[in-house]
Amino acid sequence: MGVNGASPCASCKLLRRRCAKDCIFAPYFPSDDPHKFAIVHKVFGASNVSKMLQELPVHQRADAVSSLVYEANARMRDPVYGCVGAISFLQNQVSQLQMQLAVAQAEIFCIQMQQEPSNISNTTQSSFESSDDKSFFFQNNHLSHNNHQYLDFPSSSDHHVIQDSFKRDSFFGHDMVS
């Protein structure tokens, strides 16, 4: 019988065997959740799971079972890569979102810099009205020379330039950013 003595655990029920008092599966695979053991058994095998659990200290077994269930579910969805495939997919999403964020920030910066020359020309015009020609020439030449480097940003249609700098290799040797 299982831990509570009422019914065998999910593993013993699935394997059609008598559930002993010291059944290693009983604490982690209760009879009310048979799918949990069925999927772990299908991917890893009952014998392998039993060996893994016996090698672990009791306080780590629950976490191990949780990891086995997660990996078994991932293997059912993606038999080749399992949870590594899910991690790779999420890393790809993060890379794409970082790229989109960088493009948006560059566009914002470009717009801000395009608006700034109009503020500079207003400032220099008022300086021109209040001072002589030499100071206006110095201020206007100084400001336009320093800000010219910020005005040549690629437009949003040129996002492939930024995209190339964000490409990363995945574990499997192909680009993460598509």
UniProtKB/TrEMBL annotation:
Belongs to the LOB domain-containing protein family. PROSITE patterns: LOB (PS50891). InterPro entries: LOB. It holds the Pfam family LOB. Residues 7-108 form the LOB domain. It comes from the Eukaryota. This is LOB domain-containing protein. It comes from Saponaria officinalis (Common soapwort).
